[in-house]
Amino acid sequence: MNVPGPEFQYQERLSQGRFEIQKCAGCGKHVFYPRVLCPHCGADRLAWVAPSGRGVVYSSTVVRCKPADGGDYNVALVDLEEGVRMMSRVAEIAPETVRIGMKVKARVAAGLVEFVLA
Amino acid sequence: MRGGIAVAGVGLAGCGEAPGWSETEIMAAAARNALADAGLTTREVDGLAVASVNIFLVGLSVAEQLGIRPKFTDSTCVGGSSFVGHLIPAALALQAGLCDVLLVTYGSNQRTGVGRAEAGKYKMALDPQPFEHPYKPFNPLTSYALAAARHMHQYGTTREQLAGVAVAARKWAQLNPEAFVREPLTIADVLGSRMVSDPLTVRDSCLVTDGGGALVLVRAERARDFPKPPAYLLGVGAAHWHRQISAMPDLTVTAATESGRRAFGMAGLKPADVDVVELYDAFTINTILFLEDLGFCAKGEGGAFVASGRIAPGGALPVNTNGGGLSCVHPGMYGIFTIIEAVRQLRAEAGARQVKGAKVALAHGNGGVLSSQITALFGTRDVL
Fold first, then answer.
1. Is the domain covering A54-117 a CATH 2.40.50 domain?
2. What is the reported pLDDT for B32?
3. CA B283, CA B163: separation in Å to the nearest integer?
4. Contact criterion met (CB < 8 Å) for A62 and B136
5. Its pTM surpasses 0.90
């Protein structure tokens, strides 16, 4: 246990502006969120890889919020090209215009992964 | 396990508003009512099953509050489905002779309790969910909204069809004097109510109430020694595939497909054999998903199924006959109320909302964000 756990390592990379996910050396599948054991095959050989960043919106909602509290915002589930899904948001367009099936691309903003139209 | 145990008593307490009552006190009041229904007192209880998302060491707290020394305690918490899930260890413990009278109880002061918002912040700090919380989902609602949006995209389900679930629940609630909200509700009312997280409005969402419920479980061989007609457990199955919505493999298919298959398999029954259905309707999309996943209609056809009035009073399939979490009661975790209403229907004591001749009832619990799914089938002595 000389090195920190996978969540810590993920956040550390993100704080340096790098978005990386895991890939299992046992079954070859990608993994997100970062785990200790591969959720597909149980192997403990998970290595960090940089995803392409390309993804598709799997589902999307607008969380309604008073203007005084920051206004409405988007929450989306995005499927990455590597076959993993993550919660995120689609930025730079009005939240209610985000559509399932939209092609999007990841970027790191303020230590968080978000997506913009590809 | 089929037919091995039965419900001998059910009870409610503080449903709606119970100002000045702590959660363990509501659990004790519900326990008293369920035990009285079974002609028992706390002196006969030697098994306990409880769950809470607020009380640390809840099994100990509730036993202490009741003054009982259980020989068997289960306090598994998998969210609102927990109390349906408690049927499994309860059946094992009763049938193994570890205990003879097992009490399942739940209570919450979610509506009137003080300091709950503050406590919520601490709970979030202790359980941070770093891969979802930074995006500020208004959970649990946003997670269900994402599932509803996907179902609409994939199957053409409409907001009107979702609203049909809320309207049917309200029509049942209007027949139930114990339901918390009984005013008329139309499709237009639901569509015009405040949007919270698209496509779900406040009227697509369960109530926030206080309340508690309890069950008394015994071995089937002595079930007829109690005053009320027993409801026998015919089958039960539990499954969970994820905790967070972002980890759910397909947002249109829940683990109810698996829990239901196993419950029906154990019972030797099929959906067409079920007379009355009690589903955990935290949000309107739940009812549609669970009707599909439990086999009452095909995947993707749940919207049309509910829109036809089929699940409302007078329809072919009575669903959530107490008014459900949407209109009857929803004190944080609703699972136990699905069983209580199923038992009342099987005893033919449901008054104006009674489903005539009900012999088989299904109770389905949901926990987390479509995460834990637990299905139970109960029957009268005729179907044992």
1. yes
2. 98
3. 10
4. no
5. yes
CA pair distance B221, A65, nearest whole angstrom: 56
ipTM of the complex: 0.98
pLDDT in the model for residue B295: 98
- Over residues A77-104, the mean pLDDT reads 98
**Nearest chain A residue to B250, by CA:** A58
Chain B interface test: which of A21, A75, A112 (most B C-beta within 10 Å): A75
A58 Cβ under 8 Å from any chain B Cβ: yes
Neighbours of B318 (CB within 10 A): 26
Which pLDDT score, from 0 to 100, does residue B58 have? 97
Beta strands at A103-109 and A54-63: parallel, antiparallel or unpaired: antiparallel
Question: Comparing A32 with B128, which gets the higher pLDDT?
Answer: A32
Residues 6+ apart with CB under 8 A from B284: B148, B162, B163, B165, B166, B200, B204, B326
Closest chain A residue to the Cα of B148, Cα to Cα: A59
CB B270 within 8 A of CB B251: no
**What's chain B's Rg over C-alpha atoms?**
19
For Cα atoms B322, B323, B328, give the angle at the middle one, nearest 5 degrees: 90
The minimal CB distance from A61 to the residues B132, B145, B244 is found for B145
* Beta-bridge mates of residue A59: A77
What end-to-end distance do the CA atoms of chain B give, in Å?
Answer: 12
The chain A residue lying nearest B241, using CA atoms, is A39
Report, as ranges of residue numbers, the positions in chain B whose pLDDT lies below 70.
none
Helix (H, G, I), strand (E, B) or coil at B121: helix
Does A8 reach chain B within 8 Å, measured CB to CB?
Answer: no
CB pairs under 8 A between A and B: 68
Domain segments of chain B as ranges:
5-112+207-383
> What backbone phi and psi angles, to 5 degrees, belong to B151?
-65, -40
Residues 77-116 of A with CB under 8 A from B: 77, 85-89, 96, 100-101, 112
Phi-psi map region of B136: left, alpha, beta (phi>0 left; psi -120 to 50 alpha): left
Which one of 3.40.50.300, 3.40.47.10, 3.90.180.10, 3.30.70.2740 gives the CATH number of domain B5-112+207-383? 3.40.47.10
Q: Does B198 touch chain A (CB under 8 A)?
A: yes
Distance CA B304, CA B156 (A): 10
Which chain A residues are within 8 Å of B145, Cβ to Cβ? Answer: 61
CA distance B102 to A52: 55
User: What residue segments make up the domains of chain A, in order of their start?
Assistant: 6-49, 54-117
> Token pair of B226, please?
């109690």
Q: Which residue has the tokens 């399932």?
A: A100
Predicted pLDDT at A2: 87
Before A33, cis peptide (omega within 30)?
A: yes
Q: Is B187 helix (H, G, I), strand (E, B) or coil?
A: helix
